[in-house]
Amino acid sequence: MARHIVLLPGDGIGPEITAPAVEVLNAVAPGELEYEPHAFGGASIDEHGVALTDHVLERCRAADAVLLAAVGGPKWDTTDPSAPRPEQGLLGLRKGLGLFANLRPVKPLPALYDASPLRREIIDRTDLLVVRELTGGIYFGEKTRTKDSASDACVYTRAEIERIARVAFGAARSRVTSVDKANVLETSRLWREVVRELHAREFPNIELEHLLVDNAAMRLIAAPRHFDVIVTENMFGDILSDEAAMLTGSIGMLPSASLGGDGPGLFEPVHGSAPDIAGTAAANPLAMFLSAAMMLRHGLGMEVQAAAVESAVDRALAEGLRTADLGGSASTEQATRAVLNHL
Length: 343
Hints:
Blueprint: E1 3-10, H1 14-28, E2 33-37, H2 42-48, H3 54-62, E3 65-70, H4 86-96, E4 101-106, H5 120-123, E5 128-133, E6 143-145, E7 150-152, H6 158-171, E8 175-180, H7 186-202, E9 207-212, H8 213-222, E10 229-232, H9 234-245, E11 255-259, E12 265-269, H10 286-299, H11 303-318, H12 332-340
Parallel strand pairs: 1-2, 1-3, 3-12, 5-10, 8-9, 8-10
Antiparallel strand pairs: 4-5, 4-11, 6-7, 11-12
């Protein structure tokens, strides 16, 4: 019986990289997947007035996995707190599916070392994972707004911290780096306390270190090879994972997985909707392909097929494939063919 995938192409280059991803998935798992596309983000605002409809959320809950491309764009940018924004769809989807753990692997490929703004000897052999808490913190806290002031509450519970830390320790090979701002924030002091207690109780064989977020940001650039698994709260993780993305030379190369309890996972590239290149056939589809590979592995348990996609991407790059963001001129279509040729 085919596994059921909800596709959310979204906005900008989203639809342009979703169709090639389906091609790749069909090549590596012929007849094993079925797809159900839905409007999401800005496209859903245009069609339904909201970024995520109740119907689409229910369809996502009923799926085996959700594959999302990108949302947002200048068309929907607004400072009006009452106006719908594409990003509300993302927050609603994460909350509605109980997706509390965002996994972002960062492993620069030797073929792309020269595309990184950092020297080859700094990024060589970097292989880290950012584990970001997704459903708590300042993004979801109570918000107030008057003409002259505004506030966003940052709230974390012991249970929220413990469950995300458990994911991080479970993914670690040797070390977990817990990132906080415990010298200033009360939520960070609780975070550090809970992570320390969980480590002592359940994961004493994994090394644990604590870093303040500003120090962690510097060390990601100065010595990225130091890190194995980084675990942190929602806003810090949002920032640090995008910083780590640039180690690879392009944010267009990085996939992510958002996982929760018993429901389906959400898989999406780290990059945005890139409205400036939408419609030019220049979008880099590789992060979408690698997100599809994470879906195969973490969402569907199809390890062999996931490894095949990742290997095909690696070999296409080793043979010289370069899209515009990587300093080349390959189109979305040419990049897709290069990867398909290795499947």
